[in-house]
Design goal:
372 residues, alpha/beta, 8-stranded mixed beta sheet, 25% strand
Amino acid sequence: MRAVTQRPDSLTTALHQHITQAIAAEGGWLGFDRFMALALYTHGLGYYANDSTKFGAMPESGSDFVTAPEMTPLFGQTLAVQVGEALAQTETDEVWEFGAGSGALALQLLDALGDQVQRYTIVDLSGSLRARQQAKLVAHAHKLRWVDALPETFSGVVVGNEVLDAMPVQLLARHGGQADGVWHERGVVVEDDGSFAWADRPTDLRPPVDIEGPQDYLTEIHAQGEGFIRTLVDRLTRGAAFLLDYGFGEAEYYHPQRHMGTVMCHQGHLADGDPLVAVGLKDITAHVNFTAMALAAQEAGLNVLGYTTQAHFLINCGLLPKMELLPQAQRATAAKLIMEHEMGELFKVLAVGAGEAWEPLGFSHGDRSHRL
């Protein structure tokens, strides 16, 4: 299968050339996971490695999307209730945040937790975002440090808000139905005019479950996300991790009706499904298979402490009383965190822990671990 796309935007010429060279070096075909990694993280050029504005509430700011901490400080203030409980439960005093974005969540957590946090470590591959984070977090500079990789061992409470969705995924395409269909891995090639195009190759890779139906089917598998979880597990000696993102359990993720996959791009607060154009100028994401993440954690030795919707999690942690204190306009914005048709149902929270299992407050009602 080959589908030609339009030529890349001129502003992405350097990144386009870099990826073109990578494709040539691999014999003319590059798996989508590698393409996504280059598009997002190539030093100085990739979307998360260049200086473009990414996070903001309105497109007029030049931003591409908004995350919960930018929407309302109540997100971080409510999450802090859970993080504080986890710090006490695990007898640790350090928070590790992956992919800290604008620094908004770090500021909300540090302001709320006070002396419970003695050190706040941000693990972030983006040097351009680091400068923005340092400026926003100057009041807490004495507690902060930035690293680009985890140490061999560490302890504390890990927070990752919309981190897993930005990890590169492999694309699998089935041509034909369940009975006679053949699975391919979808990758990227360069057309004669220099534009990027899709190209599929037969593969032995398969989704983790059989997918019924006579239709063609496109989906993702999450080897890098699972690898991240295993690395986390391998090095976390004492503590817990809370991962918040949009996604599903396995049965819903690989439902026969979800046949177009979940890869999505974001630019100027608009969404599109074509990651092969405007490369480096827009975000590329995929929904998270939370079953795969939970299994990776369990197989590597961590306990699954809970899994639920963002709505249940935040309500359990006391969001509603905080909302009642807000003016009406701010209350309406905060409500998007828990409304079913906004972030409340699509976004999930997975918690895993090292050491003896315990029940975090955020999962006291509505835990869905049994559905994973």
